[in-house]
Amino acid sequence: xxxxxxxxxxxxxxxxxxxxxxxxxxxxxxxxxxxxxxxxxxxxxxxxxxxxxxxxxxxxxxxxxxxxxxxxxxxxxxxxxxxxxxxxxxxxxxxxxxxxxxxxxxxxxxxxxxxxxxxxxxxxxxxxxxxxxxxxxxxxxxxxxxxxx
Length: 149
Prior knowledge:
Largest sheet: 5 strands, parallel
Radius of gyration: 15 Å
Distance between the termini: 31 Å
Helix content: 25-40%
Oligomer: single chain
Shape: globular
Number of domains: 1
Strand content: 15-25%
CATH architecture: 3-Layer(aba) Sandwich
CATH topology: Rossmann fold
CATH class: Alpha Beta
Order of helices and strands: EHEHHHEHEHE
Number of strands: 5
């Protein structure tokens, strides 16, 4: 029995993320793939903010209905390849914190959108540098990759 490939893709809830997901699914088309959509957020610095922090309202704000509909469409299109897809929030700003995150979610590979295509949403940042320094296998979507999303 083959284990799923676990891919991490930074999410900005735009077409760039959707294109990266579809491209990654085409690359791994012979294998079941679990995709972890990574939203990297700045750490809350006050103790009160950390205690009262709830990610759901923030996710509800940035995870639009259009993006959800596009994910649903991808699930319908890639029924045999896309085993699971979910969003996880990363709070941290160090390479070790990123390595821990990758280990916790047993990530096999990272798929990055082309340089300059990722646009961080409110209170988030592009995790590219942390991921590159984490010594995880990374593939970057070519700029010319076709997409039908």
